[in-house]
Amino acid sequence: MAEALTAAPASIPALLAGATGRLTHAGCDTPRLDAELLLAHALGVKRERLLVDGALVVGGAAGETFEALLARREAREPVAYIHGRKEFRRISLLVDPRVLIPRPETELLVEVGLGLPARSRVVDVGTGSGAVALALVDERPDLDVWATDVSADALAVAKDNARRLDLSVRLIRADLLEGIDGRFDAVLANLPYVADSEKLPPEIALYEPRPALLAGRDGLDLVRRLVGMLEGVPTVALEVGFDQAEAVAAMLSRAGYHLVERLRDLAGHERVVVGRR
Ligand SMILES: C[S@@+](CC[C@H](N)C(=O)[O-])C[C@H]1O[C@@H](n2cnc3c(N)ncnc32)[C@H](O)[C@@H]1O
C-alpha cells in the first residue's frame, strides 16, 4: 500500500512524485497528468505554472486541499467531476455526476452541425450537459438549436450551462423526440450505446449516470428507436461505440439514407455515422 501524503510542506516536484506513485498504485491511466491537474487546481493556477514554480514549497491549506483531491482521484473519481468542469471545443461546461462527461470524439457531432446550411433547425437528442447543442450554437449562432433529454437532472445542468455561457438553446424534456412538434433539418445524437453486460472501468461504472450509458443487449436499443423516428429528417449524425458503426450504417441505409458516411476519432475508430437524404 502506498503511503498517504500528509499536508506537511513539500516542494512541487516532491508532491507530484508522491501523488503520481499513489495514482499509479490506484490503477489510474494517466497518473502524472492527473497529479499535475489536481495540484494546479489546489493551488488555483494553470498547470504550466507548476514547472515555473518548481521550487515553491506547498503546505498549509493548499496542501490539505491537494490531499483531499488526491484521495478522491485514488477512489477513481474522474478528474472532470473533481474539477466540476470539462472543456469541449471552445466552451467550458459545468459537469457533475448528473451528466456524462463530454468526450473528445463527441466533437465530431458538432463538426457535422457546422456544415449545415444557414439558419437550419437542428436537435441534439440526449443532450446531457448540453455539450453538443451549446458548442454548436456558440460557433454557429445562426442555427436554431434544440436539445432534449429524458433526465430532468441532466436538463438542469444543461440549463445552468446555457445561462452561464449566455447561449440560447431550446431545452426540452422528452423521451428521444417523442411529442416534439417541429421539423428538423438535422438530428445529432450521442445516446447511450453501451451493452448492458459490458464491464466498465471504475471511473465510469462508479461515477457516471447509468441511464446515460446503457442501452440494452447490444447497446443499440435507443439508437434503433431514434432511427425509427427520423421520417423526413434530411441529415442525421449518431455517435456509436467503436464496433457499432457497421450495424448503425446498415440501419440508416434501411431507413432511406442513401449517403451514409462514417467519421473516425483520433484513435482511428469509426465513431460517428452520418446519414443524408
Ligand atoms: C451518452 S450521454 C451523452 C450526453 C451528451 N450528449 C454528451 O455527449 O456529452 C446520453 C444522454 O442521453 C440521455 N438519454 C437516455 N435515454 C434517453 C431518452 N430515451 N431520451 C432522451 N434522452 C435520453 C441521458 O440522460 C444522457 O444525458
Structure write-up:
The protein folds into 2 domains: 10-75, Helicase, Ruva Protein, domain 3, CATH 1.10.8; 89-276, Vaccinia Virus protein VP39 (Rossmann fold, 3-Layer(aba) Sandwich). The protein is of the alpha/beta class and 277 residues long. The longest helix is centred in the N-terminal third of the chain and has 15 residues, at 12-26. It contains 11 helices and 11 strands. A hairpin with a 2-residue loop joins strand 3 (85-88) and strand 4. A 7-stranded mixed beta sheet has the order 7-6-5-8-9-11-10, with helices on both faces. Helix content is 38%, strand content 18%. Helix 1 (12-26) packs across helix 2 (31-43), helix 2 (31-43) packs antiparallel against helix 4 and helix 6 (107-114) packs parallel to helix 7 (131-139). The site of S-adenosylmethionine has 24 residues, from helix 7 and strand 6.
Could you outline the blueprint of secondary structure elements for this entry?
Blueprint: E1 10-11, H1 12-26, H2 31-43, H3 49-52, E2 57-58, H4 60-74, H5 79-83, E3 85-88, E4 91-94, H6 107-114, E5 121-125, H7 131-139, E6 144-149, H8 152-165, E7 170-173, E8 186-189, H9 202-207, H10 221-227, E9 235-239, H11 245-254, E10 259-264, E11 270-276
Parallel strand pairs: 5-6, 5-8, 6-7, 8-9
Antiparallel strand pairs: 1-2, 3-4, 9-11, 10-11
Helix pairs in contact: 1-2, 2-4, 6-7
The protein binds S-adenosylmethionine (SAM).
What separation lies between the terminal Cα atoms? 58 Å
CATH homologous superfamily heading of the largest domain: Vaccinia Virus protein VP39
Number of helices: 11
CATH-derived architecture of the largest domain: 3-Layer(aba) Sandwich
Q: What is the alpha-carbon Rg in Å?
A: 21 Å
Strand order of the largest sheet: 7-6-5-8-9-11-10
Could you name the CATH topology of the largest domain?
Rossmann fold
Largest sheet: 7 strands, mixed
Beta-strand portion reads 15-25%
Assign an overall shape: elongated
Total beta strands: 11
Derived structural class: alpha/beta
Give the SSE order as H and E letters: EHHHEHHEEHEHEHEEHHEHEE
Number of domains: 2
What number is the mean pLDDT?
Answer: 94
Q: Identify every distinct bound molecule in the structure, by name, code or SMILES.
A: S-adenosylmethionine
CATH class category name of the largest domain? Alpha Beta
Q: Which quaternary structure do these chains form?
A: single chain
Query: Low-confidence runs (pLDDT<50, min 5 residues)?
Result: 1-6
Specify the helix fraction band: 25-40%
